[in-house]
């Protein structure tokens, strides 16, 4: 894959927006060649919208009712329309708590990314960090992946792992996972915009793998 240009990002999120913030910070620091064109949320008072507004990014609440867990029907069509209207070429799911399917997937083939708070394929779905904690896993972490038709099944771009500590609680573990997310997501976007991701089957080959291993930013 060779993008070789500034990413035009549309963000979908439901929560605090700390991942989006980490991306904004890296854009502002000149380390990720991207622009966030619009931020959409299914939660009217989500903090992610407030953060975006503060930065002067257009925001919109998507009323997804009557659906509880998916982005479907008129809300999905409106979402696609808005992303196109704002000239988006890459969709970033940043704590978006709804399942995304066609036609949105088809509108942005291999251009929708997600961050998941576990080392996939372990612990897909909701509250993944708690699943890892409850299971007694010794290692936890996060995964940035392309989104496909399944739930958290798309091709993996980057994973970062941390040990589960004796002193951890599920919440403390989540906080430490999030610190890794804030490194991994901007890093994946940087690799994408630099044209360093090649997709072979369901394997994402990173041209410049060493940079990912050693670069903490
Ligand atoms: C993040 O930990 C992200 O991995 C998770 O929600 C949190 C959002 O935080 N996403 C999922 O669980 C998706 N299934 P943020 O709003 O502060 O970025």
Provide the descriptors you would attach to this structure in a database record.
single chain, 217 residues, alpha/beta, Rossmann fold, seven-stranded mixed sheet, two-stranded antiparallel ribbon, 7 helices, 9 strands, 34% helix, binds glycinamide ribonucleotide
Structure description:
There is one protein chain. Helices cover 34% and strands 24% of the residues. It is α/β, with parallel strands linked by helices. The chain has a single domain (7-206), classed as Formyl transferase, N-terminal domain (Rossmann fold). The strands form two sheets. A seven-stranded mixed beta sheet has the order 3-2-1-4-5-6-7, with helices on both faces. The chain has a two-stranded antiparallel sheet with strand order 8-9. The two termini are 22 Å apart.
The number of strands is: 9
Strand order of the largest sheet: 3-2-1-4-5-6-7
Largest pleated sheet: 7 strands, mixed
User: How many helical stretches?
Assistant: 7
For this structure, the CATH topology is Rossmann fold
Structural class computed from helices and strand pairing: alpha/beta
Helix content: 25-40%
Determine the mean pLDDT: 95
Could you tell me which ligands this complex binds, including any ions or cofactors?
glycinamide ribonucleotide
Q: CATH homologous superfamily - what is it?
A: Formyl transferase, N-terminal domain
User: Which percent range describes the beta-strand content?
Assistant: 15-25%
Question: What's the domain count?
Answer: 1
C-alpha geometry: globular
- Ends: how far apart? 22 Å
Q: Over all CA atoms, what is the radius of gyration?
A: 16 Å
CATH-derived architecture: 3-Layer(aba) Sandwich
The CATH class turns out to be Alpha Beta
Order of helices and strands: EHEHEHEHEHEEHEEH
Low-confidence stretches: none
């Amino acid at each position: 894959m060779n993008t070789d240009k500034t990413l035009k990002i549309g963000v979908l999120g439901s929560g605090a927006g700390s991942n989006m913030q980490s991306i904004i910070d890296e854009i502002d620091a000149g380390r990720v060649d991207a622009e966030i064109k619009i931020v959409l949320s299914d939660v009217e008072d989500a903090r992610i919208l407030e953060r975006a507004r503060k930065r002067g990014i257009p925001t919109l609440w998507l009323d997804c009712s009557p659906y509880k867990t998916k982005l479907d029907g008129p809300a999905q069509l409106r979402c696609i329309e808005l992303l196109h209207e704002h000239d988006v070429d890459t969709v970033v799911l940043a704590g978006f708590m709804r399942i995304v399917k066609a036609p949105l997937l088809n509108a942005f083939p291999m251009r929708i990314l997600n961050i998941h708070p576990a080392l996939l394929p372990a612990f897909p779905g909701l509250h993944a960090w708690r699943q890892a904690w409850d299971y007694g896993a010794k290692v936890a972490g996060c995964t940035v992946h392309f989104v496909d038709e399944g739930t958290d099944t798309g091709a993996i771009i980057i994973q970062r792992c941390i040990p589960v500590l004796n002193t951890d609680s599920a919440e403390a573990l989540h906080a430490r996972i999030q610190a890794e997310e804030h490194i991994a997501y901007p890093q994946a976007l940087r690799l994408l915009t630099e044209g360093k991701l090649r997709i072979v089957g369901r394997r994402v080959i990173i041209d410049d793998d060493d940079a990912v291993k050693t670069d903490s930013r």
